[in-house]
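Exercise 3.2. Students should predict the tertiary structure of the chain below and write it as structure tokens, then compare their answer with the key that follows.

Predict this chain's 3D structure.
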Amino acid sequence: MNKSKAFIVAALALGVTSGVKAQQPAAPQLPQSPNMTFFVTGAGTGKGADLGGLEGADQHCQQLAQRHGAGGKTWRAYLSTQAADAKPAVNARDRIGNGPWQNFKGELVAQNVDELHSDSNKLSMNTSLTERGQIVPGVGFAPNRHDVLTGSTPEGRALPAGEDRTCRNWTSSTQGAAMVGHIDRKGSRDDAASRSWNSSHPSRGPDGGCSQNDLRSTGGDGLFYCFAAQ
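Answer key:
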């Protein structure tokens, strides 16, 4: 093959390659909600209740919000910690600002902290949406993922020290237990605990109570609430 033919073949090959690249569809944009100030994490960190402590959980909230256009706010995980190692307890209600808070669709879930922890809040399976605006499957779905990590009392405060209810302050994926709420506000019984969005029952399981498998075994997936502190 002489030089001129070689040049033509090379040019044609380049054109075909460029054409293929040009025809490739652009990656779809993630759904955006810049005014969102509340969501449930669509996925946990993957290490059960080991969230890297409060700092790691907050970072997870911030990253998820950033992907969906709401990263300009300061996000906090709704999690309490128990007093340990000379460090005081932290109340989830004290971490999340003053409100009001709205979900991905712009629906108001609570005006302020007091309303959030009262019977007047608007939290339910249809309003406690993920950062993508999706419903978290609860009772009646397979799998059921309605357990949400909080480590809190119904009032949003830390539980007493001694009996672990925060999987060692969100650093354990083996031994311990985490107090969870029900995102869909439903359970096996029709009582106050089953209907609680933030304080239903402790986790448990064969791995010690805090692993991803343990959380899934009782109807969870290591999910937690995120609020914009405003």
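Discussion points: The beta strands are 38-40, 75-77, 101-102, 108-110, 147-149, 179-182, 201-202, 220-228. Confidence is low (pLDDT under 50) at residues 6-21.
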